[in-house]
Amino acid sequence: MEKQSRRGLLKNAAKAAVIATGGAALAGTAKAQVTGKLEKKSYPAKPASEPAQLFSSAVSYGNLLFLAGVGAHFQGTIEEHTKHVLDELEKNLTAAGSSMEKVLKVNVYLNDINDWAKMNTVYGGRWGKIPPVRTTIAPAGGIPGNSLVEIDLIAYI
User: What cellular component terms from Gene Ontology apply here (predicted)?
Assistant: First the structure.
């Protein structure tokens, strides 16, 4: 096998990119997802006159939306807590111009890892055709506020 120089490798990679994109890169038809200036926004927007918060519930940057963790701070089962949390997240997504179908990444925090199967019975089917990637853990110290589950996520708008 003949050894290629770095320049040869880059040249071949550029040719492969043109083939893979159907020449869109060279023709100038490829477009970025976001145009204009990227800026950080909070949802819902708070007036400057209100005192500063410790964190925002939802922040976007470009077309990415980051939602803070939502828990269920009432007595109930893991199924009731999971449904409540998912319903609240869906409200927050809608208020920011997104939806459950546009969620890319989910982090699930369980107070007890043994609740994993029961949580999944409520969690499944809420995300459209392509579910988001997910990480599920049980933090050693539990979840603040006696919630059985807390979920945060990343979506697009």
Answer: cytosol
Going by C-alpha positions, the residue among 77, 68, 71 that lies closest to residue 121 is 77
Structural domain containing residue 86: 64-156
Global pTM reads: 0.72
Q: What is the dihedral of CA 125, 127, 128, 129, to 10 degrees?
A: -80
What is the domain-level CATH number for residue 100?
3.30.1330.40
Token pair of 151 as six digits:
């979920």
Range 64-96 burial, b when 16+ CB lie within 10 A, else e: bbbbebbbbeeeeebbebbbbbbebbeebbeeb
Let me know if residue 119 belongs to a domain.
Answer: yes
- Cα(61)–Cα(127) distance, rounded to whole angstroms? 22
pLDDT at residue 42, rounded to an integer = 80
pLDDT in tens, 11-68: 565 555 545 445 444 444 434 445 667 887 887 655 555 666 678 899 999 999 999 9
